[in-house]
Amino acid sequence: MQLALVDKLILALYFAFVLGIGWIVKRKVKTSDDFLTSGHSIPTWIASLAFLAANLGAQEVIGMAASGAKYGVMTAHFYWVGAVPAMIFLGVFMMPFYYGSRARSVPEYLKLRFDEKTRGLNAMTFAVMTIFSSGISMYALGRLFELVLGWDFTASVLLSAAIVLAYTYLGGLTSAIYNEVLQFFLIVLGFSPLAIVATIKAGGWQGISQRLPAVMTHSWSYVGKASENPMGVEIFGLFAGLGFVLSFGYWCTDFLVIQRAMAASSMAAGRRVPLIAAFPKMLMPFIVILPGIAALALTQTAGSGYTLPAKGGSYDYDVALTTLMAQFYPSGLLGVGLTALMASFMSGMAGNVTAFNTVFTFDIYQSYINKGAPDAHYLRVARITTIVGVLLSIATAYLAQSFNNIMDFLQLVFGFVNAPLFGTFLLGMFWRRATGHGAFTGLLSGTLAAAATHGLTVAEGKGGWLGTVVHIFPSTMAQNFWIAIVAWTTCVVVTTVVSLATNAKSSGELKGLVYGLTEIPHDAVAWYKRPVPLAIIVGAALIILNLLFW
Amino acid sequence: MGDLRKPSGIFFVILGITLTAYSFTGARAPLTDYNLNLFTGLVMLGFGGTLLWLAQRAS
């Protein structure tokens, strides 16, 4: 793929704007709170779009197009069964505790609700995960630009890292959030034309439906049996694994996204953030999944002029998006598409870096290393942590380059940690009898149970490292769903048993942290801005989408 | 910081003008029959203009 001068100018224009936003925001950053939590002053619509964009990394954009080509419209379950219901739950039920507790981070909430060791465990694992996640995002960017544009891997990694570092160092969370909104607009406007022209070229949805097997264009009709659909998952695994544990585990407990909602100006606004974000989220499959489905349909249409590259007896699904761009985007729009891709990498990376510096500064440095220092000191530590976070991410990007399975491994570790964490939060927020000892042992047991399940089962040659294989899954996706189910269940059972055997905190200590002991202020706003009516509207729209693609 | 709609609006207006102007060079992609630069440029121009108008109205 060759870039024209106009494409390079568009990329340069984007870099200038993101750096400019960082520079302007810098003047408003006076305290560590401004830098790390935006001083709880972000308007709702901005926080909502940032909430989405922080998750809209390039792995998501490229990965969902690849999954669309591989699994068809069933991939939309990640949004319509997974993300959106979890966002509704977060907005209606969980935000009052996050916001009402006045915690500055998710680990800090765990400290207030449970104890120091539970916070420490979560802070450490989260810090490591965000660095690896950011590094892998960088690695993916470097590899993509190396393959597609012939750019040097190191140059791509260092350029993106330098820009993210510059604007997060200057303006902290506010700068990251403001840039994420710009990045969100760019991603939507940059990829929508591709979805439209590729679908038209494939004959519209009707043409795609005629060219592909029915299982690729129906989201629910083939989930009765794992053997009948390309994902290899059955309805229980789909609902319990993806729809409940994995999605709720990510959207309701991952500080990377929660941080954006917590930056809103009030509890009512914080509750609206995930609910408003749910509207664009449920439409994202049309931008990120549809091009992949259209790519497969075009491949199976003689004379279409487009073919997915082959790889190992199948197709190289990972390049669906970039090969479509090369064939359908002229110079100019190609620059916009690549800038959108760069934007998605950078929003994912900045999201991880800002979550990392907050958790490190508040939950590790201020809690264990240097308590009671002046605020200016913590602001300096937060800025230094931003630099360290980016440097560690670069190192991780090179580590990922050396180990070809590190991405799979980390994806798995993510599941190991987030699934049991959701069990801990569910009990912590809705059962006042849950104790710190229970939460800590539950979290550890859930993670160990996840590892054991992976070690005792096999899917597509992965897992089974404990020597004995007790079950073979039809796909790694099914394996991941079941690992999450086992991890969550183990965490809930162990937390419950240990909690019943240990002393709980008093009701006074749990005020603002647990359901039944937290006062949820009545929202004096129009009915359509209140969480429950908003959730009902989101839910109804979600049902309609599912029925349309049944 | 001021209203985010202002810098975003300016960004998309510049992008829209660039694409619209570039569309007259006749650049085409291998599999596209439409003048995508023109259509997308106009959409971005409209979007950027709307953001600026909203920011102006709010101030």
Please write out the topology.
The complex is a heterodimer of chains A (about 550) and B (about 60).
Chain A: H1 5-26, H2 32-37, H3 44-53, H4 58-71, H5 77-100, H6 106-113, H7 116-149, H8 153-201, H9 204-211, H10 235-253, H11 255-262, H12 267-283, H13 285-288, H14 290-299, E1 310-311, E2 314-315, H15 320-328, H16 333-369, H17 375-402, H18 406-430, H19 436-456, E3 457-459, E4 462-463, E5 471-473, H20 476-501, H21 531-548
Parallel strand pairs in A: 3-5
Antiparallel strand pairs in A: 1-2, 3-4
Chain B: H1 5-23, H2 36-58
Mind explaining what this structure looks like?
The complex is a heterodimer of chains A (550) and B (59). Chain A contains 21 helices and five strands. With 550 residues, chain A is mainly α. A three-stranded mixed β-sheet of chain A has the order 4-3-5. In chain A, strands 1-2 form a two-stranded antiparallel sheet. In chain A, helix 8 crosses helix 17 (375-402). The longest helix of chain A is centred in the N-terminal third of the chain and has 49 residues, at 153-201. The mean pLDDT of chain A is 89. The mean pLDDT of chain B is 91. In chain B, helix 1 runs antiparallel to helix 2 (36-58). Chain B starts with a helix and ends with a helix. Chain B is mainly alpha-helical. Chain B has two helices and no strands. The chains are: A mainly alpha (550), B mainly alpha (59). Chains A and B meet through helix 1, helix 8, helix 15 and helix 16 of A and helix 1 and helix 2 of B.
